[in-house]
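To assess whether ligand presence alters the predicted conformation, the chain was also submitted together with calcium ion. Input:
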Amino acid sequence: MEKNIMWWKNVLVYQIYPLSFKDSNQDGIGDIPGIISKLPYLKDFGVDVIWLSPVYESPMDDNGYDISNYQAINPIFGRNEDIDELINQVHKAGMKIIMDLVVNHTSDQHHWFLESKKSIDSKYRDYYIWKSKPEPAITSIFSGPAWTYDEATNQYYFHLFSKRQPDLNWQNKNLRFEIYQMMNYWLDKGIDGFRMDVIELIGKDVHKGILADGPYLETYLNEMYENCFKGRDLINVGEMGGISVERAKELTSNPKLGLHMTFQFSHLGIDEVPGLGKWALKPYEPYSLKEILIQNNHIFEDGGWNALFLSNHDQVRQVSRFGSLKYRTKSAQMLSTMLYLQRGTPYLYMGEELGMTGIKFNEMNDYKDIETINYYKDAKTKGIKHEDIMESIHHKSRDNSRTPFQWSDEPYAGFSTVKPWLAVNPNYKELNLENELKDEQSVYHYTKKLFQIRKAYDVFVNGAFIPIDETSKDTFIYLRSNSQHQILVVTNMTDKDVTSNLSQFKDFKVLLENEATILSKETKLKPYHAAIFIKELTYDN
Ligand code: TEU
Ligand code: CA
């Protein structure tokens, strides 16, 4: 690897959703000791950085994205010492760890909010956003109005997510500096950065109705940088669903904001009716995904940096969404090949290395996600038919990706010996890590090799990105190219046989393929075919 390449551009980041990774004490809930027990697995797979979703003290209204104490560990996940042990063991294994930073809002049980709601004269009153009238009218991301009335002081407080997640008032300087102090507490413990939850919202001006990318965003990020990040060697990724990709480029180009890359969601809105939100289903068309991803690669051509992902704890598993259950293995392999060799840092959500699939519960009782439950109630009152609501939920519920990790074919998939907090996907008998390890052709083995290739060549970080088949509706074929290597990535995004003229690449050598591939004027590509080829450039000049 070239020296001038920032290390965080060439790492594999693996997201762990602690509730569902591994239960060590048999209470049905994943925990920190469970994660520690699986570090050798992660290291062996090729993980460089772990992103740990929230493990802080929380009433778990939104599975830990509602924090009541930022500096204490939720007892369901372990003791305070367990996190120190995890950080320690991760570093010992030569990996890094970033933690979730959820500072747009707290839990309604955070002592700041408990104090804030007591009286308008409270020292903490202004840590949150209070108003006598619920205006401007804004709808919460988790359904219903974003203002909730509180009797004690006869005012409304603002919350963009659940009413148990009051938004913090970032315009209050004392609040901001308490947050920076808390961040330094974690950084001083040795964590390697943060995944910053909905961070584009902290600059908002609710009274003017401005939410994402508000007028104070850069000021606060720069202040955070000066007080927390400066002088430390970190990897920070901002979740920024509410900004344009161009804007993400601008923000990540400015080293004084401490934001190395962001999660962008433009490519994940393609299966919803524009303007109607995630539950309004629209059939997936591969070309729409390809088009946006090509555009993103072009946007980051000359500055800024991007995070590459198709799945996380809020999104549906990629094989169920963009692949095919009939061709589960091939389509999972294709999706990773198509995505992870593009410009950006790869993020892999736990279980994607096995090609885990989404879930369909028939009973609402089985769903645990607050967004899903609120949507169901809201849609019912709007008169939407039960079957239609369930169809949306089957396609889009966040619980799709939150079912326990499928380690083996033992009861509860080897995740726990007791009934887990969320049901295991019934396909665990066939689809589990043990089976994936046994099968040479599995998603697991293929994906592991894919990341070895991704990390072996600078071209994936600094090379040009050149689409080869730009107008094809079926294939996604591109070249990565620098002065030393050319790498050809060939994928068929559909369940049909297709052909492609690849005769100009005849002298390339195969690095990895999930079907035999012959580069020619009429290269035959099987359903969800994926292949990677290389040409070494050895000029004498
Ligand atoms: O998600 C931000 C966010 O906007 C999501 O709520 C997204 O719109 C939704 O999940 C789509 O279904 C972050 C976290 O990743 C999420 O888990 C939290 O619930 C949310 O923030 C609030 O902290
Ligand atoms: Ca447990």
